[in-house]
Specification:
This protein is mostly beta strands. The protein contains 4 helices and 12 strands.
Length: 198
């Protein structure tokens, strides 16, 4: 489990059809083989450690359902260590299981170092993204400022832009999306009872 509060960014050292290696700085020293670690919001397992790098085996399924296959050497990714029982939950509950990928439609820079992020809203997340609700974008816990049929928006504060890879993102790039975990279960319960249509 994660919170969506990004603790650091890491750099892609290599990526191929079956693995990703990251230079994660001090975070690498806090993880051991078998540890969970979120990369752009995707929960991965440390498979190997070598020369300051964390290496993760990535299945074809994970590559196909996330933006990890879009990564290139030297690119920045959002990293988050797993939540410990008793830790503060400052963001929202994030499982690291990506619901969908969608393109960034626009990042509008605003006065004071803020920005407005507009992201496509896939059918898979219809009914799960609501104004004032939470969504994880590349693992970053964000509050939805507006939601329409086909896209949603979130305000990015200067800290988020400087501490995550969202500050370097551009329109057209795909981001990983994970809907609010509680909202997902509520929708599932209502659908199973026939109170709403899937």
């Amino acid at each position: 489990m994660f919170t969506g509060l990004i603790t650091h960014t890491a750099r892609v050292a290599s990526v191929d059809f079956r693995s990703i290696a990251l230079s994660a700085g001090r975070a690498a020293g806090r993880l051991k083989i078998g540890s969970s670690y979120a990369v752009n919001g995707v929960c991965l397992t440390v498979a190997r450690k070598r020369a300051g790098l964390l290496v993760f085996d990535v299945s074809a399924e994970t590559f196909s359902r996330t933006n990890l296959g879009d990564l290139a050497r030297g690119e920045s990714v959002n990293g988050e260590l797993p939540l410990k029982l008793g830790d503060r939950l400052g963001g929202h509950l994030v499982s690291g299981h990506i619901d969908a990928c969608a393109p960034i439609l626009e990042i509008e820079r605003l006065r004071g170092g803020f920005a407005r992020l507009r992201v496509g809203l896939p059918d898979a997340l219809r009914g799960l993204v609501a104004e004032k609700g939470s969504v994880a974008v590349d693992g970053v816990s964000l509050t939805v400022s507006a939601a329409w049929d086909g896209f949603f928006e979130a305000a990015l504060i200067p800290e988020t832009l400087s501490a995550t890879n969202l500050g370097a993102r551009r329109a057209g790039q795909r981001v990983n999306l994970e809907a609010d975990l509680i909202g997902r279960y509520v929708l599932s319960i209502l659908e199973s009872r026939g109170q709403i249509r899937a």
